[in-house]
Design goal:
It contains 20 helices and 18 strands. By secondary structure, the chain is of the alpha+beta class. The strands form 5 sheets. It has a 6-stranded mixed sheet. Strands 4-5-3-6 form a 4-stranded antiparallel sheet. Strands 8-7-9-10 form a 4-stranded parallel sheet, sandwiched between helices.
Length: 549
Amino acid sequence: MQKTVNSTEFRKMVASGARMLELNRAKVDALNVFPVPDGDTGTNMSLTMQSAIKEMNACSSNRFQEICDAVSKGALRGARGNSGVISSQIFRGICSVLKNCNESFDTKTFAKAMEAGTKVAYSAVSIPKEGTILTVIRMMSEAAPKLASKNKDFTEFLKAVIAVGDDALAQTPELLPVLKKAGVVDSGGVGLMTIMRGFLAALTGEDIGTDSIPTEAQENAKEPDFDDNSDIINLDLGDIQFAYCTEFFVINLKQQTTLADIDKLKEKLMGIGDSVICIGDLDFIKVHVHTNTPGIALTYALELGELDRIKIENMLEENRQLKQKLEAEKKEMGMLAICAGEGLAEIFKDLMVDRVIEGGQTMNPSAQDIADAVQKINASNVFVFPNNSNIILAAEQAKGLVNNRTIHVIPTKNVPQGFAAALVFNPEVSVPENKTNMTHAIDNVASGQVTYAVRNTTMNGFTLKEGDIIGLDAKKILAKGNDIDQTTLDLIKRMKNSEHEMITLYYGEGIEESAAEALANKVQEAFPDCDVDYHYGGQPVYYYMVSLE
C-alpha cells in the first residue's frame, strides 16, 4: 500500500500525465464539436503540458517548493487555447497546495490540491461554462475529500477519483447542448482524464515512455547567432546575472587535446556563466559564454590551443544604451495581430499593425508567445487582436508576463474583426478612446468560413457526411453542399442582412486567384446591392473566409 507520494514520484506523475496526453492528443483533437479539420484541444493541452515538463526538467532541486513553482510557471508560459489556459490554472492551483509539503503528501492533501485547482481554474474564466473541463475537475474535486477519507492507498484513491471524473465526463453532453448535438463529450474533459490516467500509470509502474516527451525547445532548438544580444534589450539591469558576453575561437589545438577536453571546457564554462556554446572538433572550436570573469574563460580555453577573434562586450552598458534609445523612440500605442496565412498577415501589416504572429485554428500561440511578441513592440500600450475565440484567454493571461507594457485585448474572434479593429486605430486619440472604437468596430462585422466535414454527424439541422463542403459562422453550420462556390453563396445568403453593404472574400491556400475572381463575380451577381471584393489570405483549412460589413 502506498500512502504517500514523494517529490520524485510527483515528478514522475506529471511527466506520465504529459506523456499519456501526447500519445492520445489526436483522439482528443477529433472530439471537436464542429466536424471541421481544425480540432486542436488535445494539441493545445499537450503543448501546455510539454512546457510544464520542460520547466520541471530544468529544475535541479527536488524540493516540492521548486518543483511546483517550475510546473506552474511552465504550464502558464506554454498555455495555448482555452483548454490549455484552463489546464495551466488547474495545475497552478494544485501546485499552490503541494508546494508547501515537506517530504511527501497523502490523499487528503492531494484532495485539497484538487479543490484549489478547481477554484483557480474557475476564477480564470470570466463566464464559466458547465459541461466543459471545468465541470470535470469540479466534480472530481468535490468527491476527492470523501474518497481520500476512505482510501489511504494512493492508487485506489486515484482510481476512485478517475471513476468520478469519467462519470462527470459522460454528463457533459447533458450540460452543454452543443456537445449533445454533435454526439461527443467535452474534449477538454477527455484531455484532463487522460492526464489523470497518466498520474495513475506513474504510481502503478506502467511504462508509457515518459523519457520521449517532445518539447518545443527540442523541436525548435537553434544555435544562437553570434553578434546578436537583442535578447538583453528587455531585461532589467538586475536581471543580468552575468555581465560580459564573451566570444572567441580556439584554433591550432595542442597535439594532446582530445574531444573529451572540449566537453570538459564546456563544463568549466557552465560553472562560471550561462548561455554557453562550446562546439567544434580537434581543428576548430567555437565558444560563447555570458560570464562575470571573461579572463577565466579565456584561461580555460588556452589550455586547449590558441585564441582567435576574441570579443568581450559589456551587456550592462549595452543594455543601458539600448534602453535609452528605446525609451527615446517609444510610442504610446502599438498593435499586435494573430493569424494564419501569408496574405492575411500582409493585410495586417498594410493596416500599420506593428507585429503579426502566426496562429489560429490548429496552431494557437501560447501566452508566452503573445507576451514575447508584445515585448518586441516599442510601445507603452499594445492592442492585441487574437482573431480567434480560442486565443482570447491566452492573450488575457499574457498580461501578467510582460514588462513595461500594458496589453489591451480586443476580443476579435476572427480575422475580419481584426481588420475592422485595426482600421479604426487612431494614434492621435487616447488609449481608452481607441479601445472603445475598436470594440464597437468588431460588432459591425459578420464573418463566416467555408471548409469541409471530417466526420459523419448531424448538427444544426444538417446531416453531414465526411467530405461535405460546409459553411459556418462563429456559432453554427449554416450551409452544406458538394460545391465550394455554391456553398459559399448559400452561406452569404444566410448571413446577409439589409444593413450589409460590403462583402469581402479571403481565399485560402489551394484556391487559385482565377477561381476566387470567378466566385467574386458570382457573388456580385447574386447581391448587386453590395460592393464585392476578394483578397489572397493563404489561410489553411478554410477555402474562404467571408466578411460582411
